[in-house]
Amino acid sequence: MSKEPDRLFAQPLSQVPDFAFNEDVVRVFPDMIKRSVPGYPTIVENLGVLAAQFAQPNSVLYDLGASLGAVTQALRRHVRTDGCRVIAVDNSAAMVERCREYLNGQDSMFQELLPVEVVEGDILALQFQPASVVALNFTLQFIAPDERLALLSRIRQSLLPGGALILSEKLRFNDPEEHALLTDLHIAFKRANGYSELEIAQKRSAIENVMKPDSLEEHRERLLAAGFSKVVPWFQCLNFASLIALP
Ligand SMILES: C[S@@+](CC[C@H](N)C(=O)[O-])C[C@H]1O[C@@H](n2cnc3c(N)ncnc32)[C@H](O)[C@@H]1O
Ligand SMILES: O=C(O)C(=O)C[C@]1(C(=O)O)C=C[C@@H](O)C=C1
């Protein structure tokens, strides 16, 4: 994967444009997400481990909002269930192009990996096939809030018995003190990873119109409303968490 450091917000911008998953972001994305999301490498690797427990023979594993395919690669490292295949979906052409290159690289280094199809498309318009694992790794927060329940309901309807949705998100907190503390600690995490105050502030204004985090309670209630029977948080680091939702 690209080792190019994320300096996208290092210079003062007269106007900070809304954040988009464009070519500039694609070039620095592995560095950006690792330095911005506490626990990201742990979440991605263990998503593969968890998926292996839920994968059902001859079924589809979805990686929705796959970006450069980090989750798809983890699924292919860990899932050994017969007849499974991965469908990775993203609506950013720049992400999809690079994702395909990285997956070709994985294919050339390892044998007997699960087959994978990378689809450039909107997950809101996707016709879901029967699936045993659906990963939404930091993607739902970029979907318009009023579209989230319908998407989760369609995912729930596509899930096979024994399968699971794994949902990772940035959280907000209803308690103002808890929200302020974890936001400050997240800023400290970014600072410790080499981001300047300017980079942190400009990135925040770039994402505030396009990324709308929910609270853990909102996630739980919406997942239950979508028809999931059980919601189990399995990871939290500061204001980032990952949940298992069972059909
Ligand atoms: C934060 S990134 C996800 C990171 C990735 N899952 C990982 O673990 O490395 C969010 C991704 O969701 C994609 N995305 C946002 N809205 C989408 C939509 N409606 N349909 C498909 N992809 C979408 C973006 O293009 C972006 O690549
Ligand atoms: O909350 C932030 O400040 C972030 O940078 C988070 C986040 C994310 O959660 O996806 C936002 C955009 C980038 O894709 C990388 C990280």
Automatic annotation (TrEMBL):
S-adenosyl-L-methionine binds at Y40, G65, A66, S67, D90, N91, D122, I123, N137, R204. InterPro entries: CmoA, Methyltransf_25, SAM-dependent_MTases_sf. Keywords: S-adenosyl-L-methionine, Transferase. It comes from the Bacteria. This is Carboxy-S-adenosyl-L-methionine synthase. Belongs to the class I-like SAM-binding methyltransferase superfamily. Cx-SAM synthase family. One of its GO terms (biological process) is tRNA wobble uridine modification. Residues 63-163 form the Methyltransferase domain. It comes from Pseudomonas nabeulensis.
